[in-house]
Every structure is written in C-alpha cells, then in structure tokens.
Amino acid sequence: MPLFFGPIKGLDQKTGTNATMQPEYSEQSSGSRLLTGLSRGFRRKCPNCGHGLAFGGYLKLRQECDCCAHPIGEYRCDDAPPYFTIFIVGHIVVGGALTMEQSMQPSLALQLSVWLPITVLLCLGFLPFIKGAVLGTQWAMKIKG
Question: Taking Cα atoms as reference points, which of 60, 56, 61, 49 lies closest to residue 18?
Fold first, then answer.
C-alpha cells in the first residue's frame, strides 16, 4: 500500500508556499511508520514527506521542510546520535584493531597512526546519517521538544 496519495502540487499562488504539498497518509502500523521514518531520515530527507531536505548544513536541522512545511526544527535529536555513532564506530575499530594485533603484531605507533584517523573519519561520516535516522524515529513516534 503506498504511503503517499494524491498529486504533488506546485506553489500556492496566493501565499507563495508549498503548503499544498501536505502528504496524506493512510493509517499505518507503528512498525511501518517507524521504517518509513528511519529510511527517510537516513537519507537526510524530511521524515514527513520524504522530498525536502531535513538538514541545512552538516548537522543543522532546518526549521521547516521546504516542500511540506513540516516543522523539523521542533525535534530535539542532539544527544542520541553521538552515542549511537560511538557505539557503531567503536565496534568497527576495536574489531579491526584486535584483528590487526593478532595477525601482524604491529607497534603501538603504527596502531595509533592507522586507527585514530579511521575512527575520526568514520565518526564524521556516520554522524549526519545517524542523526537523520534519529530524527525519523522521533517523527515516527511523534516525539517533539
């Protein structure tokens, strides 16, 4: 069953806004809504319509969606994404460091020169996508503020 019904209309000629693009959702199960929010958030799109951008910068949320005027700025997803990022990156880096130690037995300097930059790059790479997924989860669970 499609999640979006009806045509997407252009700008409202009177107000100049995209308020006519409000999506109409069928009654979804909470699991379906959660998966929709996660996938849209992970793509860094508006969790409500899936078309507009949710981020105005690297990690800065927009105040509202350009397409459906959904108030994205009301969601507070500041603390959870770094924890999830550290959890995921920690498992990758620790596994890699232990494998490298067991197979090659490198010096500590070599270990640090390999794993510190990898840790920083993975954290910086994963963080915006995980923040988008947390945003989508908050949208799905209707958690604001």
Answer: 49
